[in-house]
Amino acid sequence: MAKDKQPRKPRAETPKGFRDYFGADVIERRDMLAKISAVYERYGFDPLETSAVETVEALGKFLPDVDRPNEGVFGWQDEDGDWLALRYDLTAPLARVAAQFRNELPTPYRRYAFGPVWRNEKPGPGRFRQFYQCDADTVGAPSVAADAEICAMLADALEEVGIERGDYIIRVNNRKVLNGVLEAAGVYDPNDPEKFVEERGIVLRAIDKFDRLGREGVLALLGEGRLDPSGDYTKGANLTFEQRERIMIMLKGGHENNLAAFDFLAERSEIGKQGIEELEEIQDLLAAQGYGPDRIVIDPSVVRGLGYYTGPVYEAELTFEILDEKGRKRQFGSVAGGGRYDDLVKRFTGQAVPATGVSIGVDRLLAALRAKGRAGVQAPGPVVVTVMDRDRMADYMAMVGDLRRAGIRAEMYLGNPKNFGNQLKYADKRGSPIAIIQGGVEAAKGVVILKDLILGAKIAENATLEEWKDRPAQVEVPLTELVAAVQKMLALYKDLAP
Amino acid sequence: MAKDKQPRKPRAETPKGFRDYFGADVIERRDMLAKISAVYERYGFDPLETSAVETVEALGKFLPDVDRPNEGVFGWQDEDGDWLALRYDLTAPLARVAAQFRNELPTPYRRYAFGPVWRNEKPGPGRFRQFYQCDADTVGAPSVAADAEICAMLADALEEVGIERGDYIIRVNNRKVLNGVLEAAGVYDPNDPEKFVEERGIVLRAIDKFDRLGREGVLALLGEGRLDPSGDYTKGANLTFEQRERIMIMLKGGHENNLAAFDFLAERSEIGKQGIEELEEIQDLLAAQGYGPDRIVIDPSVVRGLGYYTGPVYEAELTFEILDEKGRKRQFGSVAGGGRYDDLVKRFTGQAVPATGVSIGVDRLLAALRAKGRAGVQAPGPVVVTVMDRDRMADYMAMVGDLRRAGIRAEMYLGNPKNFGNQLKYADKRGSPIAIIQGGVEAAKGVVILKDLILGAKIAENATLEEWKDRPAQVEVPLTELVAAVQKMLALYKDLAP
Questions:
Q1: Does pLDDT of B137 surpass 90?
Q2: Is A100 in contact with B14 (Cβ distance < 8 A)?
Q3: Confidence at residue B1, expressed as pLDDT on a 0 to 100 scale
Q4: Closest chain B C-alpha to A470 CA, distance in angstroms
Q5: Which residues of A touch B28 (CB under 8 A)?
Q6: What interhelical angle do A145-161 and A362-371 show, nearest 10?
Q7: What is the pLDDT of residues B365-410, one digit of tens each?
Q8: Best exposed site among A115, A484, B203, B247 by fewest CB in 10 Å?
Q9: Which of B130, B152, B426 sits opposite A53 (nearest CB)?
Q10: How many CB pairs under 8 A join A and B?
């Protein structure tokens, strides 16, 4: 109808890479985060909610993925010339808070946080520019007991939201062991960390791909490079046979607890030796609380992407199988990861502050819960009170009021009531279990009709016709018994719920 | 220690006008929003979480406050040249969603939403550039039954979070009545809405200030202007005596139900007449559900700032008194407001879509709950297991694990354990009720010491010394009875809680 000369109407679209969450999606995420929060609070962690906006100066250039150091943030300049930006994770704001409030906060400071973060990256399928993170960190605790605690807490959180024991494994490694192995292999010099930086990058990425490429593929990358089946060539680190062998010890036996294999580190790398000792301590601390290798395992093949890790690193993997987009079985994979980063607060204060923490990929974990059918209860559709007689809206509203006061989710139909079919279509779209009907005849008799909207579907799905044949699709009850009759009908379905 | 030549360290500061929320503040807000959500869901409203970022095109220039039309948003240009911005409220994104998903959403669509919004305004004391809103809106319902429903729901929500009946009042008016009065007074011409726009602005702002300025002050503003006690002059609308009288009828008797006084509208303004009828209908619908004028009242002096309202407007005011910053008593005031806006979705689709909704000022309502001592339970401090012997961390960790498995909030001390005094100071800062101590002597005997950290304070505060004199400040129990002994000690305090 718009005239040609009118200004163009705005497009009703989210910006590229952004999305909205409706109804059940919001509730499922909220329920999951509430359960995780309860575990974190039991561990003594306090919630923190920082502002979404930080100065670019405070955020720094610590964008997480070392492979893509130039990926951006959403930023702008304010009136005073300061550059502001949306936070890209929850760790950088924590480092700022730990420095800003260092005199007020307890030491150590255990905090958890969840909320959206923003990345100015190219959006793609399933790849959004705003997504949720859920983090827990301990700031100011030098002991690896803090790392062990976070691993135990992560295991508890996964079980609390519905991932059963045996369906997940938390793998722990130590950057110091990695550096020790690299030192022993002659590609890391503690006195000149910048040396061999390219070779180390290739080696770490190769180790990270062990699961996918296998022993042969990793060996090729450590040596002259690798040609993949599609014909793509990946540059190798050009290490000698001996160098390659030392690194491969780390991957011996795949994901087993093989700290013993690292004995050679003791005489060749001080940092490597220290890393092994820390891992042994973590193992002992966890064992004392009953977290055995069925839940948390030392795994020297774990690398983790973030450049800023300085000690233990850990990640949670879900081990059950799902079907990928091509219908092939594969393990669900990683849903959380973290580690020790002792230098982030130092940026602000000049003093090193030890810190360690984990970040849960909220959308990934939710997807896993959905795959397992554990994503929480769908909110029930409301009982819909239909409008048969426009002049008696007050009567219908009174019925809705009575139902709501009894704690029953209920609505009066608020669209154009002329076409009754539309009212039932609306109730269907809302997933409504019951429609309430009162025309002039019923009003005169002081009764209402309860129409059972899901009876047919339930018969088909869950029960034999025999069981249901005595059950009428609608009942007439006195208006005074409306609430009780609705409660009775809803209770029938509660028993049937899967 | 930093060398002079090092680059300047970044400042650890939130940007101006932004803030962080810690511990109890986060929990109180979360609890309050959970209670409000439960009420909204009972009314059939579904949650919606839109992205924080919108295109500037979609947001439009509908910034809420008519007095400050040029106040800004935080915006930036993306790589493709599109302008993006942070949402400044939750209504503009809802209008975008209602247009974008009009074929998928039920009609009417009842939705609630809460989350931060951002305003690029000059920050000031208590005035932040990021703050929470909590909205509920019904889109696609032309009937004022939708407005009545939202008023009833707002009353229920206020009671649910802890505002007692009698401590709040919801006032309802109708823009159509206001326009009718203005038409009858000759400052509104339905055929040329742009005419007299300046006079109407002055009149509406004057009515809005009736509470503060009283009858005389409003009359002055309707006439030649007003000189306030400080000497500031506010320009008047220069209306004639008769024009002023017609407007003052609206304020006759202050906040009473005086729809009858508007009889003169019936013959002078079609729109005014319609507005009166709608208010009467709202009153009847609310009465049918038992919401009388003790909770929701028709009040023709309500104006509401937003330019886009087209029908009923409503606001919730808390009527209990608090002390202002100068120690004077004053009513707490407004915590929520809203109304009908039938033109927002039309921007996108060209077709008018009736909508009505309310927004709760989350921080204001939280402040009110705190003033009333109803802001929810403080999270308890954790039981702190102290570290007497560095070599037995695994033992302490096992104790913490046992406590946590029993659902008790507990921590092992993770700072430097050398100075035991620091451990007790830490426990104090954390609000810890009990410290657990096990040195070498105790370990050899297989016992632990429970140190009661709040006994002294509780004796002073809540009980006579007589009542407590048999209670030791610390007890020694077998390690195997640790959990039971802690539970017993915590239970004692539970009984004492205010």
A1: yes
A2: yes
A3: 43
A4: 31
A5: none
A6: 40
A7: 999 999 888 876 666 799 999 999 999 999 999 999 999 999 999 9
A8: A484
A9: B130
A10: 280
